[in-house]
Specification:
Helix content: 10-25%
Radius of gyration: 14 Å
Shape: globular
Low-confidence stretches: none
Number of domains: 1
Distance between the termini: 34 Å
Number of strands: 3
Order of helices and strands: EEEH
């Protein structure tokens, strides 16, 4: 498998994110980065969410991505 980065088309942004749940403690984290078609970083985030469900981790990730994109002027 070949893995590589492709820039977003003009006017679009890319979003890379991941969440994690440590089963032994129930601790969760989420993080991600947003970039433009030129490879510039628009924003990034990492959050320790404590004990919660993986569904909540995914929701927090979506909200944070939308917030960063909105703050960068993307609608």
């Amino acid at each position: 498998m070949v893995v590589g980065w492709r820039p977003a088309p003009t006017g679009w942004i890319t979003v890379n994110s991941d969440g994690s749940l440590l089963r032994s403690s129930g601790s969760t984290v989420v993080g991600g980065a947003l970039g433009d078609g030129q490879g510039r970083l628009l924003g990034a985030y990492a959050m320790n969410l404590g004990r919660c469900t993986i569904t909540r981790v995914e929701i927090w990730g979506e909200l944070k991505r939308l917030e960063i994109a909105w703050d960068a002027g993307y609608r």
